[in-house]
Amino acid sequence: MAARRIRAAVVGTGAIVTHGHLPALAAHAADAELVAAVDIDTARLDAFREHTATVDGIGTPTGYTDLGAMLDTERPDLVILGTPPALHREQALAALRAGAWVWCEKPLCLSLAEFDEISAAERDGGPYLAVVAQHRYGSGTEHARALLGSGALGTPLVAHCQTTWYRDHAYYGVPWRGRWSSEGGGPTMGHGIHQTDLLLHLLGDWTEIRAMAARLVHDIESEDVSTALVRFAGGTMATVVNSVLSPDQVSRIRIDCADATVELTHLYGHSNADWRYTPRPGLDDDARVTRWRTPAADRPSSHTAQLAGLLDALRTGTRPPGSGTDARRSLEFNAALYKAAFTGRPVRAGEITEDDPYYRAMHGNHPDWAPKETQ
């Protein structure tokens, strides 16, 4: 007998759900069905429901303007959060307490304190919460991570992580953007988090961060550029740059190993063609170099690729990738980056504990960065 389809609901019906999560659900229509959609904007909700009717394998979900009413009525297995970041904590807790697994857009929440509160609502065997981290998925990432993990490229020595994008003043005209209380930070949290998460996925645990941040162009509470120097547990030294001031937009990760450089260059998503392997001078092992450059498949990074693993975890009651300590590591990295930038001191992994001001807010109540009402 075929297993029943997983009942999914989306909260928020804006662009990321329409263009990211909806195609993912359609691609997995044999395993999951969209039973409900929630949005406080009834016009947007109606437009979304009309659109779903045109997508093969989706149909028209029941519409709700209240999350609690949807959870009580539909009892979904999976809740997908595509709302602004300030809403994630409350909505994730409501879904988990109702017994639903959660898949949440980044950033998952606004602080380590919020993350730990959400984690406390999980239960052994589920429900669990996973963060959207689609750049970890796809054949190019899987191939690179396997090569790095096996030592096939030699010891990772130097790395660069770059999210240099451009956002104009109109972008920050949206009231919740650029504010600590609603977005959690600037490009470090809202833009570069995907690339830094991928860097950690490839290199493992970080141990120390030194950083700087600034508001160079935009009149916002948070930063519009940040830079960091990072040391990893394996000894790798890395630079990280997050910017919304860069006309030539690019997302890039480069890792220089003892025997080769692996580099990913893209913008919002990647396929095998976006990865490049360069052997060190004098390395003439053609068979080895060929293995580096030829992943077995070409599966682009996407919400669709990540959803496959999440659905498998839900069916087996196992913790999904991109959750728990794995997800917390990326959030702790950002908290440490802000603390290092605002205090001018290096920050070590594990240093930000419950009695640290950067545990409860990314601005750490720093007088030059915290909103005036919190000081």
Can you describe what's shown?
This protein has 375 residues and is α/β, with parallel strands linked by helices. It has 2 domains: 146 residues, NAD(P)-binding Rossmann-like Domain (Rossmann fold, 3-Layer(aba) Sandwich), CATH 3.40.50; 192 residues, Dihydrodipicolinate Reductase, domain 2 (2-Layer Sandwich), CATH 3.30.360.10. Helices cover 34% and strands 24% of the residues. It contains 13 helices and 14 strands. It has an 8-stranded mixed β-sheet. The protein has a 6-stranded parallel β-sheet with strand order 3-2-1-4-5-6, with helices on both faces. A hairpin with a 4-residue loop joins strand 9 and strand 10. Helix 5 runs antiparallel to helix 12 and helix 9 packs across helix 12. The longest helix is centred in the C-terminal third of the chain and has 20 residues. The chain is globular and about 65 Å long. The N and C termini lie far apart (61 Å). The mean pLDDT is 95.
Mean pLDDT: 95
Main β sheet profile: 8 strands, mixed
Q: How many beta-strand runs?
A: 14
Number of helices: 13
CATH class of the largest domain: Alpha Beta
The radius of gyration over CA amounts to: 21 Å
Helix content: 25-40%
For the record, what is the CATH homologous superfamily label of the largest domain? Dihydrodipicolinate Reductase, domain 2
| SSE class | alpha/beta
Ranges with pLDDT <50 over ≥5 residues? none
> What is the first-to-last residue Cα distance?
61 Å
Topology order in helix (H) and strand (E) letters: EHEHEHEHEHEHEHHHEEEEEEHHHEH
